[in-house]
Amino acid sequence: MVRVIIFLLLVYFVARAVWRLVYGIAEGLSGRRDPQSPSAVALARDPVCGTYVVPSRALTSGSGNDLHFFCSERCRQAWSKR
Ligand SMILES: [Zn+2]
């Protein structure tokens, strides 16, 4: 009887491990992407140093057609001093 219980426990743990593995692979194949990933965002070019920046995280100057994006406060100040 004890052997049967041990066998059932073993089956239970193996099944659980297999399920976790399958679940992990399925999750990987579903292709969930980080929505914050900058690779999917159109980049803006810093007119001072030429660095490409993510507009949502970059410093800005001006508005409308005169809107510029900067990688740092230093570049923004250099642009405003021109
Ligand atoms: Zn810059």
Q: What keywords describe this structure?
A:
alpha+beta, two-stranded antiparallel ribbon, 2 domains, 4 strands, 82 residues, binds zinc ion
Describe the protein in words.
By secondary structure, the chain is α+β, with helices and mostly antiparallel strands. The protein has two domains: 1-32; 34-82, no CATH class. Helix content is 44%, strand content 12%. The chain has two helices and four strands; from the N terminus they run H-E-E-E-E-H. The protein has helices at 2-29, 73-80, and strands spanning 44-45, 52-53, 59-61, 68-70. The strands form two sheets. The chain has a two-stranded antiparallel ribbon. A two-stranded antiparallel ribbon has the order 3-4. A hairpin with a 6-residue loop joins strand 3 and strand 4. The longest helix is centred in the first third of the chain and has 28 residues, at 2-29. Zinc ion binds at residues 46, 48-49, 51, 70-72, 75. Zinc ion binds next to loops.
What is this entry, summarized?
With 82 residues, the chain is an alpha+beta fold.
User: What profile does the largest beta sheet have?
Assistant: 2 strands, antiparallel
Number of alpha- plus pi-helical segments: 2
The overall pLDDT average reads 88
| Ligands present | zinc ion
Number of domains: 2
**Spatial strand arrangement across the major sheet:** 1-2
Say how many strands there are. 4
Radius of gyration: 27 Å
Structural class: alpha+beta
Amount of helix: 40-55%
Shape, principal axes of CA atoms: rod-shaped
Amino- and carboxy-terminal Cα gap = 87 Å
Strand content: 5-15%
List low-pLDDT spans: none
The helix/strand order is HEEEEH
